[in-house]
Amino acid sequence: MRGIFPGNLFRAELLKAMRYPEISYRKFCTEEYFGLDRKQNRVFIGLSLSKKEMIDHTQLCKFRSSFPFVKQVNLLVYILHHFFQSGLLGGSTLHGIDSTALACDCKRPLVSLNIRGKKIRIYNDIDCNCGKRRNNRDKSVYVICYRLHTLTATDAKTGHSFPLVSLLAPAHHHDSHFLPFLVNLAQAMGIELQIITADEAYHDKDGSLFEETGVIVTTPPSSTVPLPENTDTNTGAVFCNDECSFPMFHVGIEDQKHEYKCSAASGKCQFSGTCSQCRFVPLDGGLFQRIPHHTEQIEQA
After folding, report:
1. Dihedral sign, CA of 123, 128, 131, 137?
2. 3: how many CB neighbours lie within 10 A of its CB?
3. Sign of the torsion formed by the C-alpha atoms of 191, 197, 199 and 204
4. What angle do CA 291, 292, 293 make, to 5 degrees?
5. Exposed (0-12), middle (13-18) or buried (19+): which is 211, by Cβ within 10 Å?
6. How do the domains of the chain map onto residue ranges?
7. 60, 28 contact by CB (below 8 A)
């Protein structure tokens, strides 16, 4: 004969997350938000409109802390199912991955040090680690924080982007370590992934992610990756040798190598009798990723 059911507590959690994320549970569970004059909130949660029935803040705190990881994932799958059924996301879907720094919520650091001209602040949150971020409003390049790695779905026609799955991690780990975790978790939840766009920090240099999951990751060409020989620096066109004037066309990928064939018509190339008319270029993090950056496919992506 309980008065408050788990469904009521779950709706209260949703209401707090959507409308009142900045306040505490103690303040949230008061007449100010659940009084009889707050009919919209009471109807959403399922409380009576004629009785002064309230949810105690200790109930709500215990309910949230009792959620194990498996239940949280099942809940996210349930929400994503209704999201995909809603039609908010169109038929042309492209996925992306990026990360952002979440500074420690402690207002005062335990200690502030100057090391080699850099200001380092240490907080009492042992789950955080020192990470490096871009110079924004903060004067320090290094910060004690977390990094939130998020997989998003983007409607390629409208440009609207929706966050789907996030992983929270200490800031001192490289972003590329969390790419396979996000992809595997998303696929286990039933999200269909084909192409993922990301920055240079996320990469699939050895092709292991594609071999395991079938997902293609495309990133901006790294400026530190040297171009192969006989390659045009502006267009990325591939030539068979240093004397060839006919750009080769891309055939496909075989054994982690791009295969190119000669595009010259019969009798047009003076080296056709001595040239192999074929060339293989290894996959890299520059122009020659799994989808080469000089092909029409990358423009479509």
Report:
1. negative
2. 11
3. positive
4. 115
5. exposed
6. 6-66, 75-218, 223-301
7. yes
The single-letter code of the amino acid at 166 is S
pLDDT by 10s per residue, the chain, length 301: 467 888 899 999 989 988 998 899 999 999 999 989 999 999 999 998 888 888 999 989 888 888 888 888 888 888 888 888 888 887 777 899 998 887 776 667 778 888 888 877 676 776 676 666 665 555 566 666 788 999 999 887 888 889 999 998 887 778 888 999 999 999 988 888 988 999 888 888 778 888 899 998 888 888 788 888 888 877 788 888 777 778 888 888 887 888 888 877 776 776 666 777 788 888 888 888 888 887 777 777 7
Show the tokens assigned to 276.
């192999």
Q: 153 with 89: CB under 8 angstroms?
A: yes
Amino acid at 278: C
Secondary structure of residue 253 in the 3-state scheme: strand
Site of tokens 């998303």: 186
